[in-house]
Design brief:
By secondary structure, the protein is an alpha/beta fold. About 35% of the residues lie in helices and about 30% in strands. The chain is globular, with a radius of gyration of 15 Å.
């Protein structure tokens, strides 16, 4: 993510965001399934980690956790969790070959411009070890728009997302559809996809 306005919103609302997500991540069945499918003691990346609630759960489960976010305020909070190494980075700064046993990209890549998504997915695929697990969550829809508090979103259909993942080299395992209220107070339809390299 590199949109200055979106980053500014997250910097300003980091505390509020943390309050909304801490309990949710503790009980997240998708996160539990992701942890279970990663190699025991493996290295994982929490991409767009926010305040680090998911990263903390992964670390507590015995995984070695790298966590990145474009918001300095979010990184500061994430880095305080035991077992989590967090640093500030945009999606374009993720690189490496066969580094991770799993990558958790839960509602983070939806802030990337549509034209950049193929490049980001390709880099993430490369960063995964063969068979490494990948989780992505996005909002369903079409086009790009800012929400009520100024964050830039890119929306995808299920077909579009699955095609992008396949073209990047991922093998799709499962998907889940849902609806939830975000930080701006608006309910949105969403999709999560689990895949592997």
């Amino acid at each position: 993510m590199s949109d200055p306005e979106t980053i500014r919103v997250y910097d300003a609302k980091a505390g509020e965001y943390a309050e909304r997500t801490d309990d949710v991540n503790q009980a997240d069945t998708l996160l539990a399934q992701f942890i279970e499918t990663c190699a025991q003691g493996g290295r994982v990346l929490d991409l767009g980690c926010g305040p680090g609630a998911s990263a903390a759960v992964m670390a507590a489960a015995g995984l070695t956790v790298d966590a990145t976010d474009a918001s300095a305020s979010m990184v500061e909070m994430a880095d305080k969790h035991p077992g989590v190494t967090a640093w500030q980075a945009t999606f374009d700064e993720i690189a490496g070959e066969a580094v991770y046993d799993g990558i958790w990209a839960n509602f983070s890549l939806l802030h990337a411009p549509r034209a950049d998504m193929p490049r980001h997915l390709s880099a993430l695929h490369s960063a995964l070890k063969p068979g490494g697990r990948f989780h992505i969550g996005l909002k369903l829809g079409t086009g790009e728009a800012r929400d009520k508090i100024g964050r830039l979103y890119t929306y995808y259909t299920q077909t579009e997302l699955e095609q992008l993942l396949t073209e990047a080299g991922f093998v799709i395992d499962t998907h889940r559809l849902g609806n939830g209220v975000g930080l701006d107070g608006t309910a949105s339809d969403w999709i999560t996809v689990t895949a592997h390299a």
